[in-house]
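#struct-queue
[09:14] JT: dropping the first one here, sequence first, then the structure tokens:
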Amino acid sequence: MTGTSEHRRHDLSVDQQLALRTAAVRLRESFDGVFGAETIERFLYSSYDQFAAHSTIPNFLPLLAERFARQRLHALARVEGHHQDGKPTVLFLCVHNAGRSQMALGFFQHLAGDAAVAWSGGSEPGFEINPSAIEAMAERGIDITGEFPKPWTEEIIRAADVVVTMGCGDACPVYPGKRYLDWTLDDPAGKDVADVRPVRDEIERRVRALLAELDVPAA
């Protein structure tokens, strides 16, 4: 497979190599007629690299790589005009992609449903979602345990109609002609659930306001 030799430094196990080959097959089936095998494998392995350097759960790396590669390929399809559904696309960015941006993503997806698209990312992705953020969102009936901290990439930025930044400052990417919103919110890192609730509630208020601006009905 293209790129396998380049990733020997990660000491891929036989199971990981098999999992990545299987992931590549699934991605090729999903993007058949849109992207060739070389592009798909390049995105898959570069996504793997994004997590391999600091992951503490190597057995899950192929799955994370596949999920992130799928998101990136969907974004690239939008950028290149292969997929035009007219849905507003929003990207939520914070530092670690472990608290604020994940809660915003959770509210946006819950309220917008299939009427809009949302992604999230971090300038310095953490290792796991903030447990207090998970608990605070669960109190609202929103499960964000299936998400994971991830970086932003160029195609994801380019595909977004609106980029919402939350505390990443100069590390947040700036592309000319892109609409940016900067939300000043307390960082929930290291806080207990009681301290995260006000941040959660403010995020919900802002997400609802953003959906109204985008003419997306909130559930």
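[09:21] JT: and here's the second one, same format:
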Amino acid sequence: MSVQVDLRKSGGALDAASVVDPDAVPSVDRRSRLWLELSRAYAQQQDWLGTLGSLRTGTAVSEKSMRCHPLARSLAAELVTHGGRLNERESRALAARLGVTA
């Protein structure tokens, strides 16, 4: 999934994610990273609701991992500026939770 996102093939990343069982990933850090990569794929498609949902889920899995990861913090800031009025309140709350001042 990460490779697909890095190659900017978000559709392939979303397809790959559809066959992964997040609960089967034993490491909490890797599980949160899975959700972060999914967030990146949604952001590439400018699907801000998908980005918010997956970033929020990754934060619920491991807030510490997400707070420490520059990509998570960057996506949170991007959600605040580009996510639209529908997501604004939740985006700002998530950004604050990750230590991003927006």
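[09:30] RK: nice, looked through the second one.
[09:31] RK: The chain has seven helices and no strands.
[09:31] JT: good to know. The CA atoms of residues 2 and 37 lie 6 Å apart.
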